[in-house]
Amino acid sequence: MTAVEWLLENLISEPYSEEDFKYNEECWDRAEEMEKEQMCGFAEFVATYSDKNKNYLGEMLHAKSKYDGAERTIDLLEQYYNETFKTKMSKVTTGLDEILQEAEEQGVIENEFNWKLVREQDKLTMKSKSIKWLEFNADGTFKEQFQEAAIGRSLIMSPFNAFFTWQTTNVTEIVEQREDYIKFKTQNSNYELNKLGYV
Prior knowledge:
The chain has 199 residues and is α+β, with helices and mostly antiparallel strands. The protein has four helices and nine strands. The protein has a five-stranded antiparallel sheet, with no helix packed on it. The protein has a four-stranded antiparallel sheet with strand order 4-3-5-6, with no helix packed on it. Strand 7 (171-178) and strand 8 (181-186) form a beta hairpin. It is elongated and about 70 Å long. Residues 62-72 have low confidence and may be disordered.
């Protein structure tokens, strides 16, 4: 299996989370390393079994192919790398860019962040473009949404669809509150919410 084939087989084609994008980045790095290893392996093979790289007339195969003019094996390999791996990687990257753009347009992911929420006990940090405070009926069904925090309300961070960034349980206490900051407790955690870039 070539490095490119391995990459295409292991990439997450529709990444949604930060972990997915990090995994794909690691795949690209691993594929580059695999490609180098395979190229070095080929170079070692040519150097060790030079007769295997000749035709029945004793001519070097790559010297009579589209790689004609490559004086050294490393030059041949570099040319091969430029013609294959980089081209295919460019196509993969372009495809991922299109997926990311479509995901942004559909509100699946966000590329603008105005709010930062930090959970006190483990410093887990979430960011989003917008926030809302939700109220629910006694049976757990949605009741109403607000722009202001209040006891009994739940914070939800955009995007406001199935791919929302985070949602807290109901607020039980507001410890401190300013226009750009609120520290509050919920049924199971303590949080600090900051408005980013606030002047």
